[in-house]
Amino acid sequence: MWANVHWNQFFTNVSRLLKETSIPSLPQVYDEDGWRKRSNSTTEFPIPFLLEQQLADDFAFIGAFKDGVEAVTAAAVEIKSEPEGLIILLAANEGINEIVASAIKDVHNLLSRCAMLSTKAK
Question: Whole-structure pTM over 0.85, yes or no?
Answer without folding.
Answer: no
